[in-house]
């Protein structure tokens, strides 16, 4: 597995994280339908397609609401570069989430 979003951002919202009591567990950290996508744990490398993640200290809404911001995210850029041709696009992630 590669570095996940909560490790990269140090948000503290992973299970057992420092900010769970304040902000709750991040949906990306526990979304197992996309485990392994982009070599991440649960949704840890698919966070841009998962509702309710945290960005810049603000809770993000649905994919449609947050997609524009996610495309500018440093973590998104790192994952896309690391995965290269194997990068799983948001449309495929959303399909997996809908199952």
Polypeptide structure, described:
- The structure is a single chain.
- With 99 residues, the chain is mostly helical.
- It has six helices and two strands; from the N terminus they run αααββααα.
- It has one domain.
- The longest helix is centred in the last third of the chain and has 10 residues, at 74-83.
- It is globular.
Strands ordered across the widest β-sheet: 1-2
The string of secondary-structure elements, in order, is HHHEEHHH
| Helix count, DSSP H or I runs of 4 or more residues | 6
Number of strands: 2
Q: Report how far apart the termini are.
A: 23 Å
Could you say which structural class the secondary elements and strand pairing correspond to? mainly alpha
- Biggest sheet descriptor: 2 strands, antiparallel
| Global morphology | globular
Quaternary state, please? single chain
Number of domains: 1
Mean model confidence by pLDDT: 91
Radius of gyration (Å): 12 Å
**Model regions low in confidence, pLDDT < 50 over at least 5 residues:** none
DSSP helix fraction: 40-55%
Strand content: under 5%
């Amino acid at each position: 597995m590669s570095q996940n979003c909560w490790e990269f951002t140090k948000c503290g919202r992973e299970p057992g994280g420092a900010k769970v009591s304040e902000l709750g567990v991040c949906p990306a950290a526990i979304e197992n339908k996309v485990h392994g996508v982009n070599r991440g744990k649960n949704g840890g490398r698919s966070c841009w397609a998962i509702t309710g993640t945290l960005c810049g200290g603000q809770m993000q809404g649905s994919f449609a609401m947050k997609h524009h911001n996610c495309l500018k995210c440093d973590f998104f850029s790192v994952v896309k570069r690391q995965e290269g041709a194997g990068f799983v696009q948001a449309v495929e992630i959303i399909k997996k989430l809908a199952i």
